[in-house]
From TrEMBL:
Molecular-function GO term, any one: flavin prenyltransferase activity
InterPro entries: Flavin_trans-like (IPR036551), Flavoprotein (IPR003382), UbiX-like (IPR004507)
Protein name: Flavin prenyltransferase UbiX
Species this chain originates from: Actinospica durhamensis
EC number(s) per entry: 2.5.1.129
Amino acid sequence: MTAPRRLVVGISGATGIAYGIRVLELARAAGLETHLVVTPAGQQTRAYETDLSARDLAALADVAHRPADIGAAIASGSFRTAGMIVAPCSIRTLSAIAYGNGDNLLTRAADVTLKERRRLVLLVRETPLTLGHLRAMTAVTETGGIVMPPVPAFYLRPASVADIVEHTAARALDLLGIDVPGLPRWGEQPATADIGIDNKEAENE
Ligand SMILES: Cc1cc2nc3c(=O)[nH]c(=O)nc-3n(C[C@H](O)[C@H](O)[C@H](O)COP(=O)(O)O)c2cc1C
């Protein structure tokens, strides 16, 4: 049975909606059918952080579901998907997912993803973290989820915020086995970094 070319994307109310937007764009470019659910708090951050309307955001997905529609296709395990990415993932949404609280379509779809043993990637964003936050991350990891805080890799020398967002969104898709052309991989790129120590210098030390 081959995995369907279908991805569920959740956007919750943590800062960093740009990550979810880029995941949707890259998934579309990769030919995936995307199913989007945005929480009311996610819509609030959209308004703060972008010039997109709710309609513009919905148009980035093949199907946009209402968070209250807990009867939507993605609420059922029989609707096969390649997995789900929550980007960004608030602590509230993380906690609900960690403890199986399917209180809206996003958290229900995430719980379904876990129960069907599919990949669930959570771009959890908060800082600093309390012990409660860390415990929820542990719980969701024990249940099979992947906690992937959107933390930039500076060795890639990002030139812009867009570069940082691009790399993280592509890595999240990579975790689901979805290829993003041009994703820089350590050891596969021509060397771009001068780490300031060459062999001669090292010999003279
Ligand atoms: C501008 C803004 C930024 C926020 N950033 C974060 C954040 O980075 N992490 C977080 O856990 N909550 C953040 N919140 C709070 C969440 O939106 C709030 O906890 C909300 O209840 C989350 O609901 P949801 O998980 O259903 O989306 C932010 C709220 C606003 C208005």
